[in-house]
Amino acid sequence: MCALKIFDPELVERVGTDVQAARIERELALRDKEHPHLVRILDGGQCGRTRLFFVAMEFLLGQPLAKVLQSLPRERIWPLISQVASAARFLEQLNLVHRDIKPDNVFVNDDLQHACLLDWALFGNWRTGLTDGGQKPFLGTSQYSSPEFLFELRTTHLTVGVH
After folding, report:
1. What DSSP designation does 34 have?
2. Cα(36)–Cα(95) distance, rounded to whole angstroms?
3. What is the pLDDT of residues 8-21, one digit of tens each?
4. C-alpha closest to that of 65 among 15, 113, 127, 123
5. Residue 156 lies in a domain
6. Is residue 161 part of a domain?
7. Residue 25, SS3 per DSSP
8. 47 part of a folded domain
9. What is the pTM of this model?
10. Distance CA 96, CA 28 (A)
11. What residue numbers bound the domain in which 26 lies?
12. How many domains does the chain have?
């Protein structure tokens, strides 16, 4: 069983099919990389019949952390944060960065014992640049973004701006 993410054609038109295809290609780079706290990417591309862009990933049981955040038992907070940090550390070892880690992009199982980072639409390679060519340098959710992105600070690796 798998989950299928279908990209809104209006969004694809807005960003451009080349940009969307490149985003999916970056996601497919994770196809053979496995970590217990990252959703597994199985396939993706553009359907030949419908022309819709899609990503197929492992099917997870549970719900987004955002839905249970208010009722999350205090003793579960640090273990779940640790699991997400482990996933981010794994990505860093691959020279990748998620760019949009937030409660909506963390899935937790029903007993709140296991967290899984998902939604790869904005991830990139920090060595080759984090932008979708021609797009604004920063895409993401500002309330979960680092100060460097929000205040347009320069880092030793890249220059960023506010979305």
Report:
1. -
2. 18
3. 999 899 989 999 99
4. 113
5. no
6. no
7. helix
8. yes
9. 0.74
10. 13
11. 2-150
12. 1
